[in-house]
Amino acid sequence: MSVTYFKPRDRFDFSKDTLDIGNPLQWDRKHFLKHLFKRAFAISEDRIEEFYQRHLDYYLEKHSDGSEEIFFKYLWGLIERQLKVLMGKNIYDKDHIENERQIKQLQKFTEMLISVDRWNVHKSNDTVIAQQEFEIIALKQQVADLEAELKENRVWETDGYIIIRDGQALAVLDLCLQMQKLKATDGKELLITPAQNAWAKMISKYFREIDEENKGQAKEIKIDRLRYYLRGLDPKDPLKRENEIPEKHKLYTIAPVKKRK
Q1: How confident is the model at residue 41 (pLDDT cuts 50, 70, 90)?
Q2: Of 196, 217, 248, 258, most Cβ neighbours within 10 A?
Q3: Is the separation of the CB atoms in 230 and 197 below 8 Å?
């Protein structure tokens, strides 16, 4: 029985950081496994090795003919079995978040146990299969999370574009450059853009330009064409450009409104 392998909690031991198993008052030893995993799930990662050593010492003290190998195999088997139970649960179960937390905790236990496994117990077929099952479950969860994220992003996706007339993509880019010079009411930059390429990406992704030579069809605005005018000469002055937008494309001026009295 598990109670012969692991140290039960002393009666009236109300310490909150105990590593022993059970309640401080009377409790049914038939439910020892339940209390064992309740304790295993509660302890911090940095005390797992201490947990192992404490109960190993207890076991060896109570069993003169016992050995660490016997204790190790027993504990490993319990954790392996509980992992299979948890990994077999539906990922859409209402307790899924708690199940995942418990799986991760038992994985930390197995990592510690592997580090002291001098008998290569963890290399058994059952353990390898259990590890593969765990990885499959984790991958399925990752796929489910990515699908949910993709679904959410598609809500905001659009197939439409903002059409720029008369091939004036650089005029729009010039407006973006002017926007970077605007000040907020506190005198600081209104728009902070450490990555200048963000402007090029935005225009290339959401804008299209009229193609005069192709019956007025909308065409993609090449990002490299925009980036040509976003390269800076001085890191301390990101608005200073290596290549200025031609004057013929500087059609508009953004200016702050006059404050009303």
Answers
A1: very high
A2: 196
A3: yes
Contact 240, 246 (CB under 8 A): no
Give yes or no: residues 198 and 94 share one domain: no
Q: Which residue has the tokens 């909308």?
A: 218
Q: Is 259 contained in some domain?
A: no
pLDDT one-digit tens code per residue, 191-237 = 887 788 888 999 998 898 887 777 777 888 899 989 888 887 565 66
Strands 207-211 vs 232-234: parallel, antiparallel or unpaired: unpaired
Distance (Å, whole) CA 90 – CA 18: 32
- Global pTM exceeds 0.85: no
Contact 204, 223 (CB under 8 A): yes
The SS3 assignment for 133 reads: helix
Which of 155, 182, 213 is the endpoint of a domain?
A: 155
Final residue of a domain: which of 155, 186, 201?
A: 155
Number of domains in the chain: 2
Instruction: Say yes or no to pLDDT of 158 above 60.
Output: no
Listing DSSP states for 13-49 in one string gives: ---TT--SBS-SS---GGGHHHHHHHHHHHS-GGGHH
Q: Classify residue 158 by burial, with Cβ atoms within 10 Å: 0-12, 13-18, 19+.
A: exposed
Non-local CB neighbours of 250 within 8 Å, separated by 6+ positions: 171, 174
